[in-house]
Amino acid sequence: MSTYPKVNETKELIKQLVSIPSPSGNTTKVIQFVEEFLEDLQVETKRNRKGGLIATLPGTNEEEHRMLTAHVDTLGAMVKEVKSNGRLRLDLIGGFKYNAIEGEYCEIHTSSGKVFTGTILMHQTSVHVYKEAGDAKRNQENMEVRIDAKVENAEDIRKLGIEVGDFVSFDPRVQFADNGFIKSRHLDDKASVAILLQLIKRVKEEKLTLPYTTHFLISNNEEIGYGGNSNVTPETIEYLAVDMGAMGDGQSTDEFTVSICVKDASGPYHYGLRKHLVQLAEKNKIGYKLDIYPYYGSDASAAIRSGHDIIHGLIGPGIDSSHAYERTHEESLHHTEQLVYEYVKSEIVSY
Ligand SMILES: [Zn+2]
Predict the structure, then answer these.
(1) 337: enclosing H helix or E strand
(2) Does 163 qualify as catalytic in the annotation?
(3) How far is the CA of 227 from the centre of ligand 1 (A)?
(4) DSSP letters along 197-213, please?
(5) Cα of 223 to ligand 1 centre, how many Å?
């Protein structure tokens, strides 16, 4: 009897993944981590030129393929300007607002490999000095990085080796509550990467042969729009993105089920595949929600847009306050793990 899914193992893996800084554009270390994880499972992998990783499990049917993707890149920033006041101006990587990182601890990664710590602050933070501290706009102009080093001007900063173009990563803030809640800034989409890695591990441990050759693309440029739009084999029929479900007013997604996306800003996902996923959930008593994500695009829609003739879908754990102080619950991981497991074992329906 299999004891899967092992949600505690998944959580441990999430902790390891979110603790490796990987803003889009600087993902080599986290890809290496995933590569080694898969190597230990004796799964063959290859890197694509843009730095993503592809793992393939040969299936009974080698003529028709499936592809699943999740992304390891996260939001982050880059040094835009070394300021004369000894602070750094930022340029953001990915889609989020400055208020989501106010007060956040960060790391500055220099091109020579040095790492400095700092804090992202409003220039007008001290209430003892700035009368309008609360009202000033949270934007590129007013927010800056206070580096934990004795620096008073641009020259001091440059002496440390910090320069325009250095990557800045945010504190992952990972915490597990006793009642199953999971918090971290980067659950999007490292929670799903952990889910896919656990899926591959389960398939290997249970010595399953999947019905179709199945590729897993660990993409590293999703937050900037083009992570999963390449390396789709001509044999690929279905392409499933496993990425976060978006929560908020009017959304049905929650932290306790798997969210099946029916439509996002790119348009509807494939109707047939969506119905297939729902059937699998119903049959296996997997808690799910159907939902529309208004301001969202996925690696699956990116693949469609770049011209691949595929059947595309999107599912994932529900993430509260996405692209900010994210949270989910282990129940959501559990249901997502169950659905991807049933999905990779299922026959491709003729739509
Ligand atoms: Zn994502």
Answers:
(1) helix 330-345
(2) no
(3) 10
(4) HHHHHHHHHTT---SEE
(5) 6
Q: Are 257 and 319 in contact (CB under 8 A)?
A: no
Q: Are 169 and 22 in contact (CB under 8 A)?
A: yes
Residues in the chain: 351
Res. 2: pLDDT tops 60? no
Task: Provide mean pLDDT across the span 140-146.
Answer: 97
Give, in degrees to the nearest 5, the angle at Cα 331 between 326 and 337.
Answer: 95
Among residues 9, 144, 222, 337, which one is catalytic? 222
Which pTM value belongs to this model? Answer: 0.97
CA of 157 to the centre of ligand 1 (A): 33
- Alpha-carbon distance of 328 to 318, in angstroms, equals 6
- In the chain, how many H helices and how many E strands? 7, 19
CA of 257 to the centre of ligand 1 (A): 17
* Closest C-alpha among 52, 55, 343, 48 to residue 219: 52
Preceding amide of 268 cis, omega within 30: no
Question: pLDDT, tens digit, for every residue of 265-319?
Answer: 999 999 999 999 999 999 999 999 999 999 999 999 999 999 999 999 999 999 9
What pLDDT does residue 3 have? Answer: 66
Q: Token digits for 91? A: 């340029």
